[in-house]
Design brief:
Layout lengths: L2 E6 L8 E7 L2 E7 L12 H4 L2 H4 L9 E4 L2 E4 L2 H19 L4 E5 L1 H4 L4 H12 L4 E3 L1 H4 L1 H11 L6 E3 L6 E5 L3 H4 L9 H10 L3 E5 L11 E3 L6 H14 L5 H7 E2 L1 H8 L4 H8 L3 H13 L3 E5 L1 H4 L4 H14 L9 E3 L6 H6 L26 H6 L5 E5 L3 H4 L3 H11 L2 E6 L11 E4 L12 H4 L8 E2 L15 H11 L8 H13 L9 H12 L5 H7 L4 E2 L21 E2 L3 H20 L4 E5 L24 E3 L1 H7 L6 E5 L4 E8 L7 E4 L12 H5 L28 E7 L7
Parallel strand pairs: 6-7, 6-15, 9-10, 9-13, 10-11, 12-20, 15-16, 16-17, 21-25, 22-24
Antiparallel strand pairs: 1-2, 2-3, 4-5, 4-17, 8-14, 18-19, 21-26, 23-24, 23-26
Helix pairs in contact: 5-22, 7-16, 10-13, 10-14, 10-16, 13-14, 22-23
The chain binds ligand MGD (2 copies), iron/sulfur cluster and molybdenum atom (MO).
Length: 723
Amino acid sequence: MMETKLTFCSLCESFCGLEVDVEDNRIRDIRPDEQHVVSSGYACVKGTKFDSIQHSPDRVTAPLKRVDDRWQEITWEQALEEIGAKIKAIIERDGPQAFGNFVGAPGGSNLMSPIFRGEFYKGIGSNRMYGTGTCDTMNKFRVNGDMYGSPMRLAYPDVDHTHFMMILGANPNVSGNTLYHLPRSRDRFAGIIKRGGRVVWINPRRVESARTGEHLFIRPDTDVYFLAAFCNEIFLRDAIDHELVLRTMKNLAALQTAVTPWTAERQAQVTGIPADTLRELVDAYLAADGAALNMATGVNQGRSGTLCYWLLESISAITGNFDRQGGNLIGEGIIDFALQAKDDPVLKLGFHRSDDLPSVSGQQPAALLADDILNGEVKGLFVEASNPMLAVPNPGNHLEKALGELELLVCIDWFRNETGNLAHYILPAATWMERPGMPYALQSFVGCTPTPYLYAADKVLKPPPDVREEWWMYTRLADMFGVTLMGNRFISGFFKLAARLAHTPLGFISVPKVLISGMLKQSGQPDFKSMLKNHPHGLRLPDNPGGNFLGTPRVLTDDALVDLGPPDFVATFNERVETLFNDELNNLGRMKLIGKREIKRMNSSSANSPRLVKETTNYAYISPADATKLGVADMDHVDITSAVDSITIQVKVSDEMMPGVVAIPQCWGHEKADGLPHAQQHPGVNSNFLAGDGYNSVEKLSGMAHLSGILVDMTRSDRIASA
Ligand SMILES: Nc1nc2c(c(=O)[nH]1)N[C@H]1C(S)=C(S)[C@@H](COP(=O)(O)OP(=O)(O)OC[C@H]3O[C@@H](n4cnc5c(=O)[nH]c(N)nc54)[C@H](O)[C@@H]3O)O[C@H]1N2
Ligand SMILES: Nc1nc2c(c(=O)[nH]1)N[C@H]1C(S)=C(S)[C@@H](COP(=O)(O)OP(=O)(O)OC[C@H]3O[C@@H](n4cnc5c(=O)[nH]c(N)nc54)[C@H](O)[C@@H]3O)O[C@H]1N2
Ligand code: SF4
Ligand SMILES: [Mo]
């Protein structure tokens, strides 16, 4: 019998509402949910064609063990026993820090897994956590901690009320946006213009999103000069809300001293944005009745991501655009997650490593993983919901060798991806269609969205018999290792018993539903069941009016003042930006490499879907001017060489590209992916062979990998690419 069920797509942070027709535990159709309280009938092709991933014949549906070079299906009992014994041996010999974890982007949007993973690792005494967070956003969490007192005090632009919005290094119409929730982004940016406002995109590529509003090219990895000059212009105009700053902030002078050398003319030398254009933008920003700023992945992945975000937040704060409607807001959420994270030993800024690099929001730098393994510091690793072999810098020269040295590599995944190929075990995980849940914490609990709402969904499909949710895996391991979960023996015992019985006829309770209900009820909201029954399309919560942060105890610094000049940021700014500026001047004639997200690809996750990926599209996109200079045309091969390595790839010429910039879609390179046979037929080239890893390649304040704005040289190639 056909049934229609409601759920939300968990592939990106838009979490679009979906209607799913199901018959005999198979998806027949997926449509956008017209009545969803925020996505209102929007969903992209990745969501509506998810059946091709869900029902892929290549899914891993039982634990796999690598025996010699073959993959053998084993039982869960055997898998847990053998893996547990190996973890024990590593911990007994080398200590708990030798056993780590690497989590990918989908691991963050799973509400349950981070809780149980965190509890398990805390319990065994390891904070050896890595993840792709240091490939996309950890600079922001570092700034939140230093300026506002907690990594989770995350501001977002009030898109639905603003009259001026400037966005650096994001492409929300394709990416579904990041770190603040904005489904239907195109309509909502168009709304700003309809209100008589302006939308300005600062990006080395004239991106899809920039069809709404104005666009300015910027040379990659130079945003720090643009933002410093923007801030300096504000000081020059004395357009500062002095009363507000005096009452609620500190260290204005340190900020002013830092940006003073950066004139509009100076930044123009490296950014390509004329001085007068910058000044006009500053005027418009200051004149608007509520002006919002945002920067995202393209800037985060440069060499100054932390400094850029510090400047951006400071501009907002000193001009009175912070904590006001139409500007940048701090969500109230239903749980004060930031307060909980402030002193949390895992989430607060930590220095757990043998070098001086930080753990931000619990993550050590992904770009140090290979070194840490090869130095003998990491002997065992779980990789959950990730494919570091395609995602992190320098995988071919370095990470592949390192992963090969591990005594224990376990991948928890839906598929055997390129990283899984190097593993000893693969544990089959449930998809978001097969688990109950809510959109992830920043949206559901922290309220990082102009449209706060709650949404809960039950599982849409029954998972295959040997597929498990991650919380179950970590709870079973916690049971084996005598780890007390949640610091409470009673709750811990209850969860462990529930996990032991979960896949037997005695299974008595859904732990995710109990836990979600508990969190909802604690904050005065309807429990899980009531959410499904009374709010199947979501429950809209009140808008954030602003004026609820500055000067209140919600600022979690010791003195409850926003820090405009955190000493580490000021010192790094003064030490580094002049040097980097000279570097920029010396390299103005060279090409810089950036990434490009594609609507049908979710990093490497959808590469094996025949309905989504029909051909190789990871070309090197360059401007017509560069094509002429290089003497190449569409589909010609070029050799691209960086300080690290060289690749050969086909070219596409596009006037979307800024001259001097080459964009290559990331997370391709599937030639070895025999667990993903469709992807293997359209392998493409992994551009991260050109990115450097190791201590000298990361941004030291946050541990962010340098994945955008990489200096490269290009020449026409006579070699044949692997396209
Ligand atoms: N379809 C699709 N959606 C996705 C993903 C995907 O792979 N495919 N990935 C998901 C993930 S993991 C994330 S983190 C989010 C990311 O979501 P976004 O932050 O929106 O990331 P991108 O789409 O990569 O946009 C980054 C933009 O920065 C520009 N850029 C590059 N370098 C610079 C620079 O130095 N300065 C400036 N100003 N701009 C620069 C690039 O041209 C690009 O348009 O998207 C998520 N959504
Ligand atoms: N050059 C360059 N490199 C980049 C980027 C860039 O912009 N440019 N972007 C970086 C960014 S922002 C990111 S986040 C990374 C992306 O890298 P990752 O975060 O590693 O993402 P994927 O490559 O999509 O791999 C995700 C894996 O998780 C599996 N999976 C999906 N959902 C689940 C689940 O619920 N549970 C489990 N257990 N498994 C699941 C999928 O099958 C897939 O194998 O790449 C980074 N690398
Ligand atoms: S934008 Fe697409 S991938 Fe993102 S949640 Fe919506 S349907 Fe899923
Ligand atoms: Mo990401």
